[in-house]
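Office hours follow-up: a student asked to see two folded examples consecutively, so here they are.
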Amino acid sequence: MLANRFISPLDQLIVGVDKALRVVGGVASSSRLNPAAHAVDCELDERESRHSAGLMRVNHVGEVCAQALYDSQARHAMSPEMRKQFEEAGREEEDHLAWTAQRLSELGSQPSVLNPLWYAGAYAMGTVAAKLGDANSLGFVVETERQVEAHLNSHLDLLPVQDAKSRAIVEQMRVDEIAHGAAAQALGAAEMPVPVKLAMKAFAKVMTTTAYYV
């Protein structure tokens, strides 16, 4: 009976704020085993460790944004089927959030201090995409995941070869992002206009460049 209970707008707001605070505060749980669990933890020198931490901080920020995007898109989805799709993808992305946070801690570093800003910006973008209809919202997911896949491929080239733990996490993230994009495409995603794609790339460039350092 509880599952069918009407949730008031105020309740939804409280739940949303609580989730946002947990995400930007670095509180995340994983439903799957961390892919780095069985990777050999090789020694990194100070420069390599700092570089890996910068890249993993960028990836963590990406997952903060993913939580904001999927939460906003689920909240404003036009159909129950779309809402379910976004919620399921968001749960998998929370695994990524937890894995990257754990790796940052192991590297003696911390998440971006600008996470509240990244979350707010991504939430606004997800809301706008959702308001344009499910096909456009799905198209936004497809383009996002396409750009994220390229970004993760570059990190596999940039991470120190011996940093097997970080590389294992990034590789599993890459596999999951490809699957999310394919699922959105199969559900009838619309192609994003070129100006939108360029704007998304510009936002991502600012985010990744800044998050590497702070």
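And the second, which I mentioned at the end of office hours:
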Amino acid sequence: MTQYLVVSAVAGEARYVPEGIPVVVTGVGKTAAAVAVSRALAERDVSGLVVLNVGTTGALRDGLAGLFVPSTVINHDVNAEAVRAIGLDPQDELPIDGGDGTVLASGDVFVADPVVRARLAERADLVDMEAYGVVYACRAYGVPVRVVKHVSDAADEAALDWPTLVDTSAKVLGEWVRENAR
């Protein structure tokens, strides 16, 4: 029987997750997410477990709105080319099973600058701050993961209004969990 563990950066993103489904709040950023998810996985039997990383995302391209289930997450703020140049694999791009084809750029930079947005849009559709850490930790433990993101903003100056936008996204995310985590 499949068991689910919902992972979100902040409690507000998971506010509408149905009762009975455990939630881990990681805090902001890839490192905090990886540590919190690793700790949660180390403390439980992971057989039959699926992690659902639900949260908000910024749209890197005009016209993107709604709910997405990315197929790839990239670590956008690692200097991957330099790491490759010294003969190492930075693992800067991780596939996610069951996605919809979108690419999510994940990094510790809160994107609200149009120049940064445009640069990231060359490689990705969406941006967040935790998914890469969540996916990386789940891969290390051999636990399946799905990333489910709702567009809260356009990753521009309006992103600074995120605190007032998160509840709308949380309702959509909670409904997705209710319909898909059975």
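Two things to take away from it. Strands lie at 3-8, 23-25, 49-59, 67-68, 72-75, 93-95, 103-106, 126-128, 145-153. The CA atoms of residues 116 and 155 lie 9 Å apart.
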